[in-house]
């Protein structure tokens, strides 16, 4: 099986955009071995890291923070340290400041040569808190 | 060869000819029935789509075939590949859900992005539209078959090819006798 470890290192956060929304920022460690997912009918894995959380405004928020395409034959043994997120972590409103339970999960979408397109969630997840104050520094 | 074909037609009497026309009509209508049946089973207004652009490469290339479902009870989630329509564009777009916000009353809004595009799809949406909702979705990609859709792309790009294929099929069905 694949074990996934996700650790959040640093989480400053500030509001911006035309309407002020909370913007989160974080870096993460990720270590996983997905090589046993590949067989003759797996052309590509689409790997994505999702932040999932609940706010007063929305009962479910899902934001993809990072993704990666792994083609068959490429290295599927991943060990990232202190990775930056790839996409902006905008909340729909101002629900991130002081949020104490944001869950990070790793999932993948298998693209076959021909056949079904399943989306699978990895075992293991990581929860973290946002600071209670907006940061003034640039990230 | 052609002579013998016309010979065949000439030798048929009226009754036989009408019979062949009817069986041709039956083939056309059963094809339509299969399509309509798929629409009912999958809940999608267009259960099979052909990928027309390279924005999802290397997963999907131009000419690949996708099978869609669109069950209302199945929620849209991040990472899924959805096919959606944008106001003012005829051609539906096949892209992946990047972020999603669901309210307590069940209304969902989400943002999509093509795997091969460097930015999200807000530039593709209608003027002023920031999010997609459920009613924009044609279906969710469930199955994948490569290259097969190239035939329909050729047919659309070269109408002569389409008419040639259709004419061949029609002649074959009308003339063919078991």
Blueprint of the fold:
The complex is a heterodimer of chains A (139) and B (178).
Chain A: E1 5-8, E2 13-16, E3 21-24, E4 27-33, E5 44-53, E6 60-71, E7 77-84, E8 89-90, E9 102-111, E10 115-116, E11 119-128
Chain B: H1 2-11, H2 14-42, E1 48-50, E2 65-69, E3 81-84, E4 93-102, E5 108-113, E6 137-145, H3 150-157, H4 159-175
Structure explained in plain terms:
The complex is a heterodimer of chains A (139) and B (178). Chain A has strands at 5-8, 13-16, 21-24, 27-33, 44-53, 60-71, 77-84, 89-90, 102-111, 115-116, 119-128. Chain A is mainly β. In chain A, strand 5 and strand 6 form a beta hairpin. Chain B has 2 domains: 2-42 and 158-175, no CATH class; 48-147, Umud Fragment, subunit A, CATH 2.10.109. Chain B contains 4 helices and 6 strands. Chain B has helices spanning 2-11, 14-42, 150-157, 159-175, and strands at 48-50, 65-69, 81-84, 93-102, 108-113, 137-145. In chain B, strands 1-2-6-3-4-5 form a 6-stranded antiparallel beta sheet. In chain B, helix 2 crosses helix 4 (159-175) and helix 3 (150-157) packs across helix 4. The model of chain B has no long low-confidence stretch (mean pLDDT 88). Chains A and B meet through strand 5, strand 6, strand 9 and strand 10 of A and strand 4 and strand 6 of B. Chain A: It is found in: Endoplasmic reticulum membrane.
């Amino acid at each position: 099986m694949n074990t996934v470890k996700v650790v959040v290192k640093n989480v400053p956060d500030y509001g911006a955009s035309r309407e002020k929304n909370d913007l989160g920022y974080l870096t993460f460690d990720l270590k996983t071995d997905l090589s046993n997912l590949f067989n003759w009918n797996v052309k590509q894995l689409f790997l994505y890291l999702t932040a999932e959380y609940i706010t007063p405004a929305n009962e479910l928020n899902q934001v993809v923070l990072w993704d990666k395409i792994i083609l068959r034959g490429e290295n599927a043994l991943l060990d990232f340290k202190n990775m930056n997120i790839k996409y902006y972590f905008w909340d729909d409103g101002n629900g991130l400041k002081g949020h104490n339970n944001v869950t990070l999960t790793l999932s993948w979408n298998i693209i076959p040569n021909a056949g079904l397109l399943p989306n699978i969630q990895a075992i293991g997840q990581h929860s973290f808190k946002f600071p209670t104050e907006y940061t003034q520094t640039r990230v | 060869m052609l002579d013998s074909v016309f010979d065949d037609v000439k030798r048929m009497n009226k009754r036989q000819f009408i019979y062949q026309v009817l069986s041709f009509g039956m083939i056309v209508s059963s094809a339509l029935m299969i399509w309509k049946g798929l629409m009912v089973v999958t809940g999608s207004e267009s259960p099979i789509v052909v990928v027309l652009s390279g924005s999802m490469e290397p997963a999907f290339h131009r000419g690949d075939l996708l099978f869609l479902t669109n069950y209302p009870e199945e929620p849209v989630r991040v990472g899924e590949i959805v096919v959606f329509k944008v106001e003012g564009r005829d051609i539906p777009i096949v892209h992946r859900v990047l972020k999603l916000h669901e309210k307590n009353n069940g209304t969902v809004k989400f943002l999509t992005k093509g795997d091969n595009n460097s930015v999200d799809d807000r530039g593709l949406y209608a003027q002023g539209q920031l999010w997609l909702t459920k009613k924009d979705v044609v279906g969710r990609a469930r199955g994948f078959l490569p290259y097969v859709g190239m035939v329909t792309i050729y047919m659309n790009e070269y109408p002569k090819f389409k008419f040639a294929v259709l004419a061949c099929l029609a002649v074959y069905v009308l003339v063919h006798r078991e």
